[in-house]
Amino acid sequence: MKKQILCGFLALACAALFAGCGYTQTQDNAVYGKITAIDGSAVTVALGTMDETAQPPQGSPPADIQQGQQPEDTASAQVEQTDPSASFQPQSSPSTQQQQQPQGTPPAGQQPPQQGGGQPVQLELTGEEVTYTISDESILKIGGGEQTASLSDLQVGMILKITLSGSTPSAIEIVGGMGNGPDTTSPSPTIEGTAVYQLDTGSQTLANQTLAASEANESAVKVTGGAALTLNNVQLSKTGDTTSEEESNFYGLNAGVLTTDGTIALQNSTIETNADGANAVFAMGPSASIQLTDCTIHTTGNSSRGLDATYGGTVTASNVHITTQGAHCAAIATDRGEGTIDVTGGTMQTASEGSPGIYSTGAITVRNATLNATGSEAAVVEGKNSITLENTSLTGGQNAGVMLYQSTSGDAAEGTSTFTMTGGSFTAQTGPLFYITNTDAVIHLQQASLQQSSGILLSVKADRWGSSGSNGGQATLNAVAQTLQGDVQCDAISSVALNLTQASSLSGSIDTAHTAQSATLSLDASSTWNVTGDSYLSALTNADTTCNNIQSNGHTVYYDATNAANAWLNGQTLSLPGGGSLCPIS
Questions:
Q1: What is the longest distance spanned by two Cα atoms in the chain?
Q2: How many CB atoms lie within 10 A of CB 134?
Q3: Distance CA 115, CA 415 (A)
Q4: Within 13 Å, how many C-alpha atoms sit on residue 10's CB side?
Q5: Cα→Cα distances 361→250, 303, 545, Å
Q6: Mean pLDDT per segment of 10 residues, for the chain of length 586 residues?
Q7: Which of 383-399 are b and which e, b meaning 16 or more Cβ less than 10 Å from the residue's Cβ?
Q8: CA dihedral 217, 221, 225, 228 (to 10 degrees)
Q9: Residue 172: Cβ-neighbour burial (10 angstroms; 0-12, 13-18, 19+)
Q10: Sheet-wide strand order for 574-575
Q11: What is the DSSP letter of 510?
Q12: Which residues contact 367 (CB under 8 A, 6 or more apart)?
């Protein structure tokens, strides 16, 4: 799916550290760019041109009105046609289109205003990337004010003004991309899509209708302006590829059903899309909400998800059946700026690469449903976001069962990825059951039926995302009344912690390769470990101090006697049931 990175506020503590530093701005030697990668002191920026001093044009909607919509007193609406046999035509009048385009929208090719950096800043990328080495002596300032920062505060997605002395940065000013976490303010898209049926004000109901969108960037249904639309027994179809995959991913351009401000209720209806960038159901913005009951969704093109929510949008679904065939087509997804999706019942089937059953850059909850991804992981959590499953059947066909990670795309704020599963079943047909890289991750499992064919329960390691040497994972797995099977693997820049309670059990080895930066295990008195290979623990906590709840099968469990958490073992070697032993690492 796509990708960028959403940045948190810079720590105020950094300002104190750098208080009193001088700052000289040489306008003639300044360049502007958006950070695309950070590797130690090497910072890569995509260069661009911008006018950071420009004020919002007169007539721009105030901050409390979502960009991309008009205030209710100026919104236009297409009135419901009462004749069930009547066909619906897309809006085409120049006056209507002029109303739809909010004043102040950046022209095509420009980035939308960045949030959190004071005045709006518009960066037009030139297509050139440059890598600068930023030393500790470089002076970093925030938004032209008195706040200062350090190299460690820079994050992908920030917009910088870099003053050069020759080719060396002498001062860096952060002028955009400093929002506190994901931007949920719904910046305006640069492409204004059309719709076969658009409602901009009031409430309407359509029943027993067929709506077909066939043009590029045209939706079957679109709701804006705080309007409310109910669709009952409606057949919606969408053909015609998007002209911008990014705008389709982030803003719902070319979606079958779209709301950017308002509510849509779909009942007993079908949505079919057969085009690239044609997500079926899309809620974009904090005032956008869609509810589906007893509906069927089918998409065939690439980048065409079933349910999607961005920038704080909300989707609620009950007994919805979703199939997708293209690449990058999760059945249930959130994207840039987070979103919330709640699903009860139904079935979800995806078939291609990069198309998990669930992809979360927000908060997604699924209960009493069945999801099967044959060409991808069953579920993916990116960044500081979550997936919660209750009594749900989940199957992943490729790569891993569930992946929790942080990309460098900018679509998800950095933080702890969370996966919670209570009851239900979960199968990984290839790869580890859980795979964690370049993020902190917490996994909560309770009474779920788990299966994997690789023999690997949990793999925590560095991969292609992030900065080499610091892109490992930090995983915590909490098991409650849970049966776990498979080995736990961890590399030298990663850590793993297993906590087993309420008669949980683990059958497998832990860090057999002895590579983990840290590997810990905690057992309550009712929980057990069946050791299937020599294992290495940084720390062992066991409510049964005799360790009779560890069945060794002749294997040795090594522990770090220098770790204070192991003081209770007094550096001893203990015989374990099954002929093996628990002993200090020599």
A1: 85
A2: 20
A3: 19
A4: 29
A5: 12, 16, 42
A6: 34 29 44 81 82 37 29 29 29 32 31 31 70 73 64 76 83 68 61 96 97 98 97 98 96 98 98 98 96 98 98 97 98 95 98 97 98 98 97 97 92 93 98 97 98 97 93 97 98 98 98 98 98 98 97 98 97 97 95
A7: bbbbbbbbebbbbbbbb
A8: -170
A9: buried
A10: 535-537, 556-559, 581-584, 574-575
A11: B
A12: 343, 344, 345, 389, 390, 391, 392
Nearest to 477 by CA among 445, 450, 440: 445
Q: What stretches of 208-334 adopt beta strand conformation (E)?
A: 210-213, 218-223, 227-232, 235-239, 257-259, 262-267, 270-274, 281-284, 288-293, 296-299, 307-310, 313-318, 321-324, 332-334
In angstroms, the CA 155 to CA 408 distance is 10
Residues in CB range of 183: below 8 A, 6 or more apart: 6, 114, 115, 116, 311, 336, 337
Residue 414 token pair: 């950095």
Structure tokens at 241: 């590829």
3-state secondary structure 59-108: CCCCCCCCCCCCCCCCCCCCCCCCCCCCCCCCCCCHHHHHHHCCCCCCCC
Cα 481 to the chain's mean position, in Å? 29
Helix, strand, coil percent values for the chain (each to nearest 5)? 5, 45, 50
Contact 183, 44 (CB under 8 A): no
Give 247-258 as a DSSP string.
HHHHH-TT-SEE
Q: Is the dihedral of CA 546, 550, 554, 558 positive or negative?
A: negative
Q: Which residue has the tokens 């974009």?
A: 284
